[in-house]
Amino acid sequence: MTDNQITPISADExxxxxxxxxxxxxxxVQICAVRTPDGYELxxxxxxxxxxxxxxxxxxxxxxVMSISSIFSPAFLYENEILELFGVKIQMINLDYKGNLxxxxxxxxxxx
Amino acid sequence: MHQLHGKVNLxxxxxxxxxTVFHNLFSKPATRxxxxxxxxxxxxxxxxxxxxxxxxxxxxxxxxxxPTGAIAVVRETKNWSIKRFGCIQCGECVGVCPKKCLTMLxxxxxxxxxxxxxxxxxxxxxxxxxxxRQTAAAKPAAAPEQTPAQKAAAAADTSKE
Amino acid sequence: MSTRSVVPxxxxxxxxxxxxxxxxVLEDERVVEAIPSIGFIHRGLEKLVxxxxxxxxxxxxxxxxxxxxxxxxxxxxxxxEHTMGIEIPDRAKYLRTIxxxxxxxxxxxxxxxxxxxxxxxxxxxxxxWRMREKILDMFEYxxxxxxxxxxxKIGGQRKDMPDDMIADFVHIxxxxxxxxxxxxxxxxxxxxVKSRLEGVGYLTKQQAHDLGAVGPFMRASGINLDTRxxxxxxxxxxxxxxxxxxxxxxxxxxxxxxxEIYQSIDLIRQAAAKIPxxxxxxxxxxxxxxxxxxxxxxPRGEAIYYVKGNGTKNLDRMRVRTPTFANIPxxxxxxxxxxxxxxxxxxxTIDPCISCTER
Lengths: 112, 161, 359
Prior knowledge:
The structure holds 3 protein chains of 3 kinds.
Chain A: E1 6-9, H1 14-23, E2 27-36, E3 39-48, E4 51-60, E5 64-66, H2 75-86, E6 89-91
Parallel strand pairs in A: 1-4, 5-6
Antiparallel strand pairs in A: 2-3, 3-4
Chain B: H1 2-25, E1 48-51, H2 61-65, E2 71-74, E3 79-83, H3 92-96, E4 102-105, E5 117-121, H4 148-160
Antiparallel strand pairs in B: 1-4, 2-3, 3-5
Chain C: E1 4-9, E2 21-27, E3 30-37, H1 57-62, H2 69-84, H3 90-118, H4 122-143, E4 152-153, E5 156-157, H5 163-189, H6 191-197, H7 205-210, H8 216-219, H9 250-274, E6 289-298, E7 301-310, E8 317-321, H10 323-335, H11 343-349, H12 354-358
Antiparallel strand pairs in C: 1-2, 2-3, 4-5, 6-7, 7-8
C-alpha cells in the first residue's frame, strides 16, 4: 500500500503543493505533529478514494507556518490542536481558537 | 360517508393495537428479577484477582507486569497486597505467575466509599513432627524431630529461591 | 428583519451521550451558523506513551472509548505489528474480524437506541438496548468483559474462541436477525419517526467530500468508500460491498446503519465458515523503530493510527485520528438552515463519540 510513503517538502512549498492537491480533488485527512529534539515534524495527509498522500514538513521550534485552512477548510481543527498542545506557531487559521480548543491547565504540554 | 370511513379506521387501529396489548399483558418481563434471581456469571468473566497465598514465593513478577501498579509485593515481611480499585482486571498477573497461585475470580469487587487495599500475609505454621514444605529446588526432608527455629529457617530458605 | 440570537447547546443535554458544546446562531427558530467547542473530556492519553511501555499501552489504547474499545486496541496492535514486521497467525486475523463485526453490531444498536431516545420514543430505545444485551452477553462469554475486552495483544490475541462457541454465536445472531426485522420496520416505516428524520440535515456529495466526512455519514451522501476494502485483518477473504445511499438526509443515515447490522451478521457467518485452526499469537522480541500509518474502519468511520518508535521501550508518538473529529466540520454544515428542534437529531446522526475525539 502506498499509504506509508512520506514526501518531505519545505515550508515555502507547502501552499503550492496543497493547491495542486486541491485541484486534483484530494481532501484533507489529518495533520500530525511529532516533537523531535530539533523542532517539530508536521505530517499532512490527503486522500482521494483509497489512496493517501503524505507530505512532511520539518521545522524548528520558533518557525512560523502558514495555515492551509484557506485551501482545505476542515484543517482548522487539526491546526488548533497542534497550536494548543505543541505550541507550533501557525498563522491565519480561518477559525482560530487561540489556544482554547481543549482549555487545558498546562500550556503546550507536548512540547517537553 | 366520511363518518363511516372514520369509524372503520378507528376499529382497524383498535384491532391492530389489541394484538400488542395482549402480547404485553401475557409475556414475561425482559429483565431478570434480581436480587431474588441471582446473576450467573459465565466462566471467563474477569471479576477480581484471587490469590492462594500459601503457594506464593514473593518473586514480584506480577507486580512488575501490572500495567497500573496495583500489586505491591514485599518479600521480607511476606506481604502481597493489591489495590482493588486500581486493578483493571486485565489478567496479566494471572498469566505470568510462575507458581500459578493467582486466579481470576468471577465476582466483582464490592462497591465501597474508600479505595480499599487488600493485603495477604503468608504465615507458615508447619505441624509438629512434619518435615518443612517441599518445593522443587528444596533440600530433601530433614529428620522429623526439628526445632521450630530450624523449621522456620528451612522454610525461609526455600521461599527465597 | 429578523434578529439574531446566540443559544448555547450542551455540554449538558439530555440527548447527548457525551459532552460537546455548540454555539448556535439563530434567526427566529432557524439555525444560521454553529460554532463547535470541544475539550470537556480531554485526558491527554497520547502523552501517556512516555510513561507506559508499548506493550502495556494496549490497555490505555483500549480505554480511549467505551463503544469502539476493541477496534482501538486492534488498530494500535496492527500499527505496531507492521512497524516491527510481525506476521500474526491467520486464526488471530479471523478472530479479530469476528470481534470487530460484533463490536460494529453493538455500536449500531446502541446508536439506534439513542436516536429513538432523542425523539422521545422511549420504548423503542429500550427495545433496541434489550437486543444489544444479547451481544454484550456474547462478549462476556467469550472475552470476560462486557465493554472492555482486553483480548488484543501485540502478536495476536490473548484468548481463543473454540469452534463450538463461534457456532453458538452465529446461531444467536441469526435469531436476532429475525427480531431485528420487526424493530427496523418501526424505524423505517413509522409515520412519526419518518417525519422527524426525512428531509432533515442534507449533505451533498461534494460537500461530504470537501469537508472530509467519514463513515456512514459520508456513505449516506453517495460516496462509495469503506476502509474495510483495503484488506486488513481477514477482510481480504470476505465478500461484501459498501452500503451507500444517494439521498443524504438523516433518514438515509439511519437506513445505512440498519443495513450495516445485517451486513455484519453476514460477515460473521462468512468468517465463521472460513476460520482456520492454529495458534492465536506469536512471540516476538525487540522494540519498535520507524513509523506507520494504519487505517481501520470503526463503526463511526475511518480511524487512522500513527505510531513512531525510536528503538526504546517507550514510543516517540502515538496519534489517533478518530472519525468524529473528521465529522465535526460536516456536522456544522448540516446544521445550517435547520430548525432548533432538529439540532439534537442532527448531532446524533453523525454518531458522536466525543471521548474518542478528545482522547
